[in-house]
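hey can u check if this looks right to u? its 208 residues, i copy pasted from the old doc so theres a chance i mangled smth
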Amino acid sequence: MSYPRMVCFRILLVLVAIVAGTATLVAEKKQPPPPPAHAKSPSPAVTDEYIHKEFGDNCSLLAGPPQFVGDLDGDGVDDLVVAARCKNPMADQAEYGFLVADPYDSFLGFGDVKVTSTFASDAPERKGVSLLIVHGVGPEAWRSDKPKPKFLLINLPFKTLTVKRLALKKKVVLGVYMEEKGEGEDTSSVIFWDGKKYHYQVLGASLE
């Protein structure tokens, strides 16, 4: 093979390698992350002792709604979701290191949780009803004694709760699905972690 042909051949090989490498990178980029594992029930179930330890004596488990464990924030570590009744959440958040948030009223345009935390339901059975979420840290996940992100979500009008997958634009996450009661009767909605906070989204009304 002549020298010019050899040079051309080597250049061609380099170009082929570059194209192949670029195609591989593009293919890897386009592949979405695997969906999170399905949520399950904590075993053993969470008790008031755990709730008082993590959120204070003003919070107690709400009888009825199921408890869930799953990776809500996408970090590969299981998180905890339980329904509770909390008398005065704002008073204990600094002491127990949790964040009080109101994704429902934020969606409606009321962004100041100091104000929306004073909203009281007309129905006595709805007063103080909250959703507690504990993000897991390390091998022991949400049961760890290490400081971990904890959230007390107020004013959510849920009648039923379930945790299952939610398809967003670029990935699949676990969301807390709700069938609502009160003003949103027969409406379904979902709470999900958007990378910075818990976000509320209406899914639609029942067709029944």
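The CA atoms of residues 12 and 182 lie 70 Å apart.
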